[in-house]
Amino acid sequence: MRIIERYDIRKLEDYIINIDQYRKELKMREYELFENHEPDNPGGGKSNLPTSTIEIQTVRKLSDNRYVLLSNIVSGVDKLISNAKEDTKDMIRLRYWECPIGCYEWEDIANYFGTSKTSILRRRNSMLLELADYIGYV
Fold first, then answer.
1. Closest C-alpha among 26, 15, 27 to residue 97
2. Above 70 in pLDDT, residue 10?
3. What confidence score (pLDDT) does residue 83 get?
4. 71, 26 in Cβ contact below 8 A?
5. Which residues does 77 contact at the CB level (< 8 Å), separation at least 6?
6. Which residues contact 75 (CB under 8 A, 6 or more apart)?
7. Best exposed site among 9, 114, 120, 121 by fewest CB in 10 Å?
8. For residue 129, what are the contacts with CB-CB under 8 A and spacing of at least 6?
9. What letter does residue 114 receive in the DSSP assignment?
10. What share of the chain is helix, strand, coil (3-state, %, to 5)?
């Protein structure tokens, strides 16, 4: 069984908390990649690059490490949420997005679900391990 470290927990939770910011960064990075900053054929002659715009876009996306990382984060969190059970979705919503008064600690969330803090933390760890698998977090 894999053990998840404290700094990994913080980073993976940050991905969930700031998913909207990561979506914006992904769109902005996509815009930056496809904005034409240099002339098409400055030296003249025939280039050996693919001519299809879809091919060019795909090559640019896959060769940019930042874009690939952001895409993995966004798709991984979306997949985690879509595959999660309703109580896991509630836990994500209460802890990371909509923190109502009295749900700032894991003990409060455990009380909300009528279970112990240890079992909630186990659920969190399994959820974060699943997210790590989805995004390729090592």
1. 15
2. yes
3. 94
4. yes
5. 15, 16, 19, 22, 131, 134, 135
6. 134, 135
7. 114
8. 2, 4
9. T
10. 70, 0, 30
Residue whose entry in the numeric block shows the structure tokens 């997005």: 97
> What is the spatial distance between Cα 117 and Cα 93, in angstroms, rounded to a whole number?
17
Longest CA–CA separation in the chain, Å: 71
Q: How far apart are CA 132 and CA 79, in angstroms?
A: 11
Q: Which token pair is 77?
A: 């969190």
Length of the chain: 138
pLDDT at 60: 82
Q: Which two tokens stand for residue 52?
A: 């299809």
Query: What's 96's DSSP letter?
Result: I
Instruction: Record the tokens describing residue 115, joined without a space.
Output: 């279970």
**Chain center to CA of 123:** 19
Spatial separation of the C-alpha atoms in residues 104 and 45, rounded to whole Å: 63
Cα(126)–Cα(24) distance, integer angstroms = 27
